[in-house]
Amino acid sequence: MGSVMLGYVTDFFTYETTKSVVVKSWSVGIINRLVQLLIIIYFVGWVFIHEKAYQVTDTGIESSVMTKVKGFGYHNDRVMDVADYVYPPQGADIFCIMTKLIVTENQFQGKCAEFGERFSCTTDKDCHKHFGSVLTNGVITGVCIQTSNDTLNGRCEIEGWCPAENDQVEIQPMLDVNNFTIFIKNSIRFPLFNVTRGNFPTTMTATEIKRCTYHPEKHPFCPIFRVGDVLNYTGQSVDTLASQGGEIGINIEWKCNLDLNIDYCVPKYSFTRLDAPFAKNAISKGYNFRFAKYFKTENGTDFRTLHKAFAIRFDVMVTGNAGKFNTIPTLINLVAAFTSVGLGTVLCDIILLNFLKGAAQYKAKKFEEVSEAQIEASIAQSPGSQLSLKPCIKSSYDSGAMSLATSD
Amino acid sequence: MGSVMLGYVTDFFTYETTKSVVVKSWSVGIINRLVQLLIIIYFVGWVFIHEKAYQVTDTGIESSVMTKVKGFGYHNDRVMDVADYVYPPQGADIFCIMTKLIVTENQFQGKCAEFGERFSCTTDKDCHKHFGSVLTNGVITGVCIQTSNDTLNGRCEIEGWCPAENDQVEIQPMLDVNNFTIFIKNSIRFPLFNVTRGNFPTTMTATEIKRCTYHPEKHPFCPIFRVGDVLNYTGQSVDTLASQGGEIGINIEWKCNLDLNIDYCVPKYSFTRLDAPFAKNAISKGYNFRFAKYFKTENGTDFRTLHKAFAIRFDVMVTGNAGKFNTIPTLINLVAAFTSVGLGTVLCDIILLNFLKGAAQYKAKKFEEVSEAQIEASIAQSPGSQLSLKPCIKSSYDSGAMSLATSD
Amino acid sequence: MGSVMLGYVTDFFTYETTKSVVVKSWSVGIINRLVQLLIIIYFVGWVFIHEKAYQVTDTGIESSVMTKVKGFGYHNDRVMDVADYVYPPQGADIFCIMTKLIVTENQFQGKCAEFGERFSCTTDKDCHKHFGSVLTNGVITGVCIQTSNDTLNGRCEIEGWCPAENDQVEIQPMLDVNNFTIFIKNSIRFPLFNVTRGNFPTTMTATEIKRCTYHPEKHPFCPIFRVGDVLNYTGQSVDTLASQGGEIGINIEWKCNLDLNIDYCVPKYSFTRLDAPFAKNAISKGYNFRFAKYFKTENGTDFRTLHKAFAIRFDVMVTGNAGKFNTIPTLINLVAAFTSVGLGTVLCDIILLNFLKGAAQYKAKKFEEVSEAQIEASIAQSPGSQLSLKPCIKSSYDSGAMSLATSD
Lengths: 408, 408, 408
Known about the structure:
- The first copy, chain A, is 29% helix and 36% strand.
- With 408 residues, chain A is an alpha+beta fold.
- In chain A, strands 3, 7, 8, 9, 10, 11, 15, 16, 17 and 18 form a ten-stranded mixed sheet that branches. In chain A, strands 4, 12, 13 and 14 form a four-stranded antiparallel sheet that branches.
- In chain A, β7 and β8 (94-113) form a beta hairpin.
- The two termini of chain A are 38 Å apart.
- The interface between A and C is large, with 94 and 112 residues.
């Protein structure tokens, strides 16, 4: 019993290694080493150094953005400050700077004539086609009313906030927006590595920050952006944007290699016009929205001032990822690299066994053939001894291409 | 010296290939090729074609959403327009359409009776249990005051904005919300591939867009959505949503195969009720929030109108990823595929060396055994020549299962 | 013809397996098995069990957050309720609780003296240095005007909303914020697996939710958070935050192993101070923003009340990922594991062929050499028969280290 056990243990602690044929041929030898070199160069140069396949990547960046706009502008002979032109006011990552306001004052609930040539009429019937339209300033009642300033033609009547808005007026946009500044405070975190970073260095003093203005080369880490510069970087003219509105993306990109010093983990800013994909469509050029301020008369009646605001909307978008050495991707890629180096033999086998002088001889050396017939014969002849098995080596027709599938 | 050098060089430019045993047996041969075929089919069909393992994927989609609601509704005998019922007004990705407003007008700072049966009292002591409660309309003072309309019972007194809100009133919600339309402008970017797309084709004209309404089959790329349709797609009734409020998710999904023409990179819309996971909880059905409009009397006293707004909140959520051919995943998966094909030999080895007739003979062919004793003997006998080493081939007990670990 | 065809078919259905040398040596055998054991332990323990490499991961979590604040506070002798101190009111994922308000009432458009010692002047020239400054309360006109309360020195004149804001006043912040509660409703979805979850169990009743308060151990799934507790968890003092403002992150983390019961897919809350990376910078401590309420006089002149609000901003950030068994990563990692086990032979080969007694003998067993000269000789001798090819086994100088590249 014990010796059988020992036999098993002895059999277990053996080492099995493949038997190899070493071909001493300059042609195949050089091809072999060349292929291996190419594979190694590819893996070391591209996979490991360029693509950093030895790192695990955290793409789930957590970000918090705080913004603050400063500056004064003239609009309709009034000075506008931050509380007047920034919406929403709380300094979110998406905020609008209103550059042109079409103001319709003292709107009360009631009935009045709709504004616009499209709504001119002579009889009530002319207005019925507008029933249910959402492109009006109120609910179409279906009545055609005479207006004082247009005695021949009437206008379709609407029910809602009156008087109706006239958004065709020419208003000078607030071009002072060019000199406004945006302060962006962005703190990010890579949860996988528990790394927290801010968008300006901790060594920057308050005075340094207050005085600087972002410049891609001179002040790449200054968190204060001049609106004119930002529009410039996106290639937009301030006149068009201020009068039609538009959407500007301020992208903060964090690409961090955490195997290096954490100080190299810095933001990179880029600026794009977000509505660029729609540049060819005639619709919805620009950006505008409507909001109202509500008032009460002395006797408690509600009235409002409607604002159609053309605004430049800024979207601060934070993207990024961080990489750090990790054994799992390293191992998997190393194994892939080693295995790939081994795959070089596939190519060499094809050359060796098919195209080289003496291919048949090489085949005979590489492949040892055993057929069912031989095995059966050997069993019949001497069932107890397999030492008498006479090797019958002959050329195999198994092509090198086939060995591609079985070589490892 | 030179000849030794040459010897090393000659030895380096050799080609080493494994010595193989070719078993000419129909049974193992067929099993071998079948296993290889299955593995190849799996890799080609599933890994490469279905799962596109040859692509690198960008999941860090950047997105900017602009929305615009249009439509008129009647609420409390007043016509409500966009400036009245949409909050926030700037056309963000998350916006609310208020469908029911409980308005408490002319609230002044002061002390008054709390509203509700829960706060009825006869003595001050009855009110002490409410101290510090956050479910009231103001700070409980601990005093029980008589109210004119309830002579027997008093009400607990609160300090804050008076009169207290009565949110139990029955108010007809604004069902016209059904006919409102939402225009969504969504531009996305895949930073890894620097691909920018908009959610409607650049060939669409302004008139086409203004006239169309989204329909999953007929107009899948129309960016204008009827609220009634959206609620329909989520299986919600407009009556419940309009009176209780609710959260609707409009999901824009971008799944782009950038190996194809960029025109196939289009959005797919889906609609869900976001508070679905809480459907079973009795709490917080629906969605509402409070806001106030502030006024001043002639002599400068502040007063406000409190609104409890029941709203349908729309969250436009953009998700997606883009894939494009890349050598790294392709190579890693190809290597995995080749290696896996090679792993087929493990199964065949087990069959060949254990279950086939003549297994012992096959073992003798496959394994060549060498023991420490032999080596030592051979060293003692002829230390200078290893050609005289007599191979001692005998059956190995190493099972095929063991060779699983060492076969490659 | 047919027999040639059959020959090809017979040749195709063969099975090729590597010829192996089994070394019966305790030293190499034990090293071999030990290395294999270590590799297996690494893959099973770390790669598969700890890192769950058999799962595919969805990191594109979709999330919708609804918040509701409750509580009353005293500020400037007035009771503030939710409609007064929360901005924006609609219950978004980012909201501010204003804790200190510097109110400048009755501002009209006009010209007046700027506030602050910095703007004191004796002649107009003293004011010219402030031209274009954005750190003022209006546009500097360049005129120095005498102010009634400061007869010796004048102040620079500004144009804009007058009177200018004095933000240096000492105001007691609303410390009652400590007792406010935040209710968070968060529903998430993993689009890859189409799994939807809410942040509190469906078994929780309305009364249970209304009564509970979040506690990391006692009530980890209660969705109601006391502001005081949250500030406590981040290690911040309420006094500093309430008077200077600040940004608090409420992180909801979903780490779901969908191979387990879905009930284990639960949120984990953590709380951080988001402006922590800027703690060392002197600038922009805290968080504040300005907004205005607009009024009209009887005769229609606009005036406003400017608020400088110091607020605690809460960012509810939802992160997470879900993993589920998938064949592709499993297979790739299994193949990597098997291949890695095979790579153990590389180490053993180096030991066997270089450092073991009888290394030359082992080399002779493992490597069979064939040179171009032999092949040519054999072709010349008997071109028809390769059976007569006499194997010429001799020691190869190919080191074990070299075989690292070609072993598989």
